[in-house]
Amino acid sequence: MLIQETEVNLFEECKKCMPGGVNSPVRAFNAVGGEPFITERADGAILTSTQGKKYIDFVGAWGPAIMGHNHPTIKAAILEALDKGTGFGTPNSYELLLAKKIIELVPSIEKIRMVNSGTEATMSAIRLARGYTRRDKIIKFSGCYHGHSDGLLVKAGSGALTFGHPDSAGVPYSFASETIILPFNDIEEIEKTFIQLPDQIAAIILEPYPANCGLILPLPGYLKKLKELCTKYGTVLIFDEVMTGFRIGLGGVQEKENITPDLTTFAKIIGGGLPVAAFGGKEEIMKYLAPEGPVYQAGTLSGNPIGMAAGLAALKLLEQELPYQNLNKMGIIIKEAILQGAKEKGIPIQVPQVGSMFSFFFSEKPVLNYNDVLETKSNHFKCVFKYALEKGLFLPPSAFETCFISTAHKGEIIERSAEILYKAIKSVA
Ligand code: PMP
32, 42, 54, 252: which has the highest count of C-beta atoms within 10 A? Predict the structure, then answer.
C-alpha cells in the first residue's frame, strides 16, 4: 500500500491538497452523499479500496476499461514499450501503428491526429471545422458533454450537470455565444436554425448516443437527417465517439447506424487506460491541420509511445475477441434485472441499454433529451447507489452518467451484479 490508512482518513487528506479532494469532479460523491473510497488497485471487474474492500466496478475508469482493468496483454504491451523509453519528441512507430489500426477499423477516418484527452480532441476538431469552413458558430445539444473547453461548457452534461453548473463560471459570454444549444432528438429545431443561419454554422458536434446525462438513444432516422442537413448546408458533422468509439462495436455508433461523419473524436478505449485521445476524418478536412494547413494544434506528449502501445494492444484485443455480442448479453441481463425490480416495486423506470452501456431513469416516459432527464427522480438514484455500494457494487456517483460493463464481468460477476441491482431498485424508499 502506498499510504497507510490506519490513522488518517485519506479522503480528508485529499481534500486538504486538492479542490474537493479530487482531480476530476465526477469522482466526488456530492450528488449521492458520503465520501468516495480510494482505490488501491483494479483488476478485471473489481476495484480494491485502500481499506481492502472489493467493489464490482460499473464505472470502468469512466470508459476505457472495456476489457477489464489491468489486462495482462495491455500491461505487457506497456512494459515492452516502456523498455524503449518514455517519450521521444520525434515521430515513432507506435503512433503509426495505432493510426493505421484506427483508420482500418473506422471507415470514416482517412487521417487522424493523436492528442491526450477527449477535451483536446473535441476542442481541436471544432477549431479545424471552423478553419475549414471559415465560419464561427457551432451547434451543440443540451446535455451532451464534450469536455471542458470554453465553448463547449454550455448546457453540458456529466459533472457539469451533476454539480449544477451546466454553464461554467469563467467562460466569457462572447466565447459561449458562438455555441448554439439545441435539444437532442428534435430535427425541426435544427432545420429552423439552418434556415435562419444557412451559411454560418461551422459544425454540429454531438455524442451520437448521448451518454453524459444518463444514456439517451436517437430516434429512428434522426442521425441520418442530421447528416443530410450538414451536407446540404456545408456544415462539418462531428461525431464525438469518446465514449462510444470501440465500445458500441469496432466502428462505433457510425458503423452501427451506417452514417459517415466528417470528423470523429476518440479517447478512453483508444488509450487502453492511458491518457490518449484523437480526432480524425476526411482527408480533405484533416489537411487543414498544421503543419500541412493553417489550423494550429500541437502537443508535447501527443503520440506518446507508451500510450500508443497500450491503445494498440486494446484495439487488437477487441479485434481478436470481438466481445460485443457477449457484452450486449450482459447488458440485457442487467437491464432485465433492473426492470424486474422496478416492476415488483411498482415504480416507473426506463432502462436505456445498448451493448455494454446502460443507465436507468425513474420516469414514466422514454427519456429523449436533457429536459426529460431533468424531470426524472434523481433522489431514487441515490438510494440505489447507496444500496449497491454497501453490497459491493460501484455505480457512477451521479444519476446523470452511464454505466459500463467489461468483458471481465462475465459469469458469476454479472449474475451477482444483476441480483444486487434488482434488490437495490427494490430498496428505493
Ligand atoms: N466527450 C465525451 C463524449 C466524453 O464523455 C468526455 C469525457 N467523459 C469527453 C469528451 C472529455 O474527455 P476527457 O475527460 O478525456 O477530456
Answer: 252
The CATH number of whichever domain residue 46 belongs to comes to 3.90.1150.10
Q: Examine the domain organization and report whether 44 and 170 are in the same domain.
A: no
Q: How far apart are CA 399 and CA 379, in angstroms?
A: 9
DSSP sequence for 326-341: HHHHHHHHHHHHHHHH
Label residue 155 by pLDDT band (50, 70, 90): confident
pLDDT reading at 163 higher than 80:
no
Q: What is the DSSP letter of 290?
A: T
- Vertex 382 angle, CA 381 and 386, to 5°: 115
Distance of alpha carbon 372 from alpha carbon 211, whole angstroms: 14
| Cβ 122 under 6 angstroms from ligand 1 | yes
- Shared domain for 80 and 50, answered yes or no, is no
**Distance, CA 341 to ligand 1 centroid (Å)?**
31
Mark whether 296 is an active-site residue: no
Mark whether 240 is an active-site residue: yes
Which of 94, 140, 209, 240 is flagged as catalytic? 240
Question: How many angstroms separate the CA atoms of 270 and 282, rounded?
Answer: 19
**Bridge-partner residues for 264, per DSSP?**
239, 280
**Per-residue pLDDT reduced to its tens digit, 67-101:** 999 999 999 999 999 999 999 999 999 999 999 99
Q: Report whether 11 contacts 38 (CB < 8 A).
A: yes
Query: Each residue of 38-74: pLDDT tens digit?
Result: 999 999 999 999 999 999 999 999 999 999 999 999 9
Domain CATH for 221 = 3.40.640.10
Task: Identify the DSSP state of 85.
Answer: -
Average of pLDDT values for 359-373? Answer: 95
Task: Name the residue among 159, 194, 158, 160 with its Cα closest to residue 176.
Answer: 160
**Residues 238 and 348: beta-carbon distance below 8 Å:** no
Owning domain of residue 358: 2-66+323-426
In the predicted structure, residue 6 carries a pLDDT above the cut 70: no
Active site (annotated) includes residue 268: yes
Model pLDDT for residues 273-325, shown as the tens digit of each residue: 999 999 999 999 999 999 999 999 999 999 999 999 999 999 999 999 999 99
**247 C-beta closer than 6 A to ligand 1:** no
Q: How many domains does the chain have?
A: 2
Q: Do 359 and 316 share a structural domain?
A: no
User: Which pLDDT band, with edges at 50, 70 and 90, does 176 fall under?
Assistant: confident
